[in-house]
Design brief:
heterodimer; A: about 230 residues; mainly alpha; about 80% helix; B: about 350 residues; alpha/beta; D-Maltodextrin-Binding Protein, domain 2; 2 domains; seven-stranded mixed beta sheet; three-stranded parallel beta sheet; 14 helices; 10 strands; Spermidine/putrescine ABC transporter substrate-binding protein (chain B); transport (chain B); signal (chain B); SBP (chain B); Sperm_putr-bd (chain B)
């Protein structure tokens, strides 16, 4: 765009006619949801295992290893994944992007869940065992409900990390598979068409809507707190 | 626990629905069928209608991917994870790809339209006998300038840029060979000069240009010049055509000392699966009428001699984009100078960029 000429909705129409772009948007969402889900599951299991480690030294070592992916630059992670996938013979595309997103989301989930576990009084578990709960019951009825806020926080962190990741994704996309950030980057070099602006507007409204819904849900839940947790 | 399971189930269902939607969309446009052709081209470098027409004529589905630099393209093809059937590298990159054995030879019997290409652009040093590549577009490096902003001052040569009147008015593209090449050309040396003395002199001469330089920028130069942020720019001819379309006050000139002549070429990389389809596509693009339509859309210069008759006359006779034979004589194609010399070019360019006013 060079000069403002007037208002129009043309770009929205063009946006919805551009199937390739729509596919890319959906790809981005699927990758974000699936990678957040899987990394949350693995991350919670990881946090639980780290919590079980009693030796201080071993625990610190594992935690440091966990932080490797967080502190190393995205470009390095992306390049390493590219080399790894090439060597392992994994075709670049949906699965390579999904795997790499899961990999860099897990440490974030672990870091979100672990403090919640630490916060929990160990006497809770002892009390549950005393009252005849099996190990499975302890996990599902005591530990998981207690760390649920941490799990959700981890899930949403993983979701946003995956949604806006560019550097890692840039390396591992291929075979016609692309995510929004990578696509916009390649468009930027040749002058961005205004339908990207239209798309950004829609995504922004969509996120605002999610935030509003989330706000009302938490408000409703707050009203319920104070009762006995099932 | 129940809450967790409910939320996670919702996420799984949402992803499945999305996957289903992607699948439907993909099959609606036909990307999932076997009969596909993957093209890897520069952004904005083909008339989309032609892709539609090719799909209609052959029944193949075209997957069109874009890259923004020769180097990015090389990496993706080297890496081999993607099955590109056609790629469009510039000429210096072809030499490199041949060295690394990344290209498949072309079957000329499947390319009858090859005869449409102007003899000037056939059998060039980077690919003797066009065994591996067919020229797609060509162009020059030159100066774009704003008539309104410069008043009656004329620019016809590289050396005109050193005029003190142009203080802080020049934008340069961020390319080592282009900029060092400008220095070499302005001194009358070859663009492929590897003589260290000559290169040092060119760099010293470029340093004296710094008061006139406003910035060294990437592709945004198109927008900056069209928005009249600066009066003069060193650009590729195709970009110049884009800018002139945006802003009527702009004009383009190929400097009289000579300049670079570049080609983008269609090749079939080693990663190709649909080799038959790739040949069909190259032949399709070589068709005179198709090339004419594509050239009008892209506005770079076409090497297709037969296409010229289908194009508007003012476009063909425009000497800025189809330079006269005398000037063409002075244009040089970049040669692959080898790693050591390229490093020297890059070092000098870096020093030049760091030079202070």
């Amino acid at each position: 765009m060079y000069n403002f000429e007037g208002f129009t909705l043309d770009w929205y129409r063009e946006l919805f006619q551009d199937t390739r772009l729509l596919i890319i948007v959906l790809n981005t969402l699927v990758i974000a949801l699936l990678s957040a889900l899987i990394s949350t599951i693995i991350g919670v299991l990881g946090a639980l295992s780290i919590y079980q480690v009693k030796k201080r030294r071993a625990k610190n070592t594992i935690l440091s290893l966990n932080n490797v992916l967080i502190v190393s630059p995205d470009v390095i992670i992306g390049a390493s994944f590219l080399i790894l996938f090439t060597m392992a013979g994994i075709k670049l595309g949906f699965y390579s992007v999904l795997l790499s997103h899961i990999a860099f989301s897990i440490p974030i989930v672990v870091l979100m869940v672990l403090p919640k576990l630490m916060e929990m009084s160990p006497t809770l578990i002892d009390a549950a065992r005393d009252l005849g709960a099996s190990r499975w019951n302890v996990l599902t009825k005591v530990i998981l409900p207690f760390i649920t806020p941490g799990i959700f926080a981890g899930f949403f962190m993983a979701l946003t990390y995956s949604l806006d990741d560019f550097a890692v994704t840039f390396f591992v996309t291929g075979n016609g598979f692309s995510t929004l950030s990578v696509e916009i980057y390649s468009l930027a070099r040749r002058g961005i068409s205004l339908n990207i602006n239209a798309l950004s507007t829609l995504l922004f409204l969509f996120t605002i809507l999610l935030v509003v819904i989330y706000y009302f849900i938490t408000q409703r839940n707050k009203a319920q707190v104070g009762g006995i947790r099932k | 626990m129940n809450k967790l399971i409910r939320v996670f189930a919702a996420v799984v269902i949402a992803s499945l629905l999305l996957l289903f939607a992607i699948n439907r969309l993909n099959s609606a446009v036909g990307f999932s069928s076997d009969n596909t052709l993957t093209i890897y081209n520069w952004g904005d470098y083909i008339d989309d209608d032609l892709i539609d027409r090719f799909e209609e004529e052959t029944g193949m589905k075209v997957i069109y991917e874009t890259f923004d630099s020769n180097e990015a393209m090389l990496t993706k093809i080297q890496q081999g994870g993607t099955t590109y059937d056609i790629a469009v590298p510039s000429e210096y990159m072809i030499a490199k790809m041949l060295e690394e054995d990344l290209l498949l030879p072309l079957d000329h019997s499947k390319l009858p339209n090859l005869k449409n290409i102007d003899e000037r652009f056939i059998d060039l040093p980077f690919d003797p006998g066009n065994k591996f590549s067919v020229p797609y577009f060509w162009g020059t490096v030159g100066i774009v300038f704003n008539r309104e902003m410069l008043g009656d001052m004329e620019i016809t040569s590289w050396n005109d840029l050193w005029d003190p009147a142009f203080e802080n008015e020049i934008l340069l593209i961020d390319g080592a060979r282009e900029i060092i090449g400008m220095g070499l050309n302005s001194l009358g040396y070859s663009l492929n000069d590897t003589n260290v003395d000559h290169l040092e002199k060119a760099k010293a001469k470029l340093d004296t240009l710094t008061p006139n330089i406003k910035a060294i920028v990437g592709d945004e130069i198109k927008m900056l010049i069209a928005n009249e942020e600066a009066a003069i720019g060193l650009v590729w001819s195709g970009d110049a055509a884009d800018m002139m379309w945006e802003n009527e006050n702009l004009d383009y000139v190929v400097p009289s000392e000579g300049s670079n002549l570049w080609f983008d070429n269609m090749v079939i990389p080693k990663t190709a699966k649909n080799i038959e389809g790739a040949h069909q596509f190259i032949n399709f693009m070589l068709d005179a009428e198709v090339a004419a339509q594509n050239t009008e859309w892209v506005s770079y210069s076409t090497p297709n001699k037969e296409a010229l008759q289908y194009m508007p006359e003012d476009m063909v006779e425009d000497e800025r984009f189809y330079p006269s034979p005398e000037l063409t004589e002075k244009l040089e194609v970049y040669e692959n100078l080898g790693k050591k010399n390229l490093a020297l070019y890059n070092d000098l360019f870096l020093q030049f960029k760091m030079h202070r006013k």
